[in-house]
Amino acid sequence: MMVVIVILFIISIALIGISFFQRDNVKEIEQELDHLQLSAMQEIYKLKKKMRVLEEELLQNDDFTDENDTDVSETSINRIITKYKQGMSVEAIALSENLTVKQIRSIVKQNERVLT
Fold this sequence. Notes:
This is Resolvase HTH domain-containing protein. The protein has helices spanning 2-21, 25-67, 74-85, 90-97, 101-110, 112-115. By secondary structure, it is an all-alpha fold.
């Protein structure tokens, strides 16, 4: 009987020792979940940022169409951008193109990407 108790005691100590060296699957799953949450939050942030940019562009386009009573052709826009790049003032461009200063400023603002 004593031999059986000693053998069971040795087996229990061995099992406790093995349990310390086994991987903790729960901890790995928690780390993966944290990583997924961070990734999702980053993606949401990027999408919100893109949505803000798109909304601003749409609002600018709406403002631009509201301000323009006349239809400005693509060639006129190109001339305005060229004149602005050459350093002409907005007022001078408005006089030369027969447009309002507001229209010229909105065209320049819309085409900031082209100007840089």
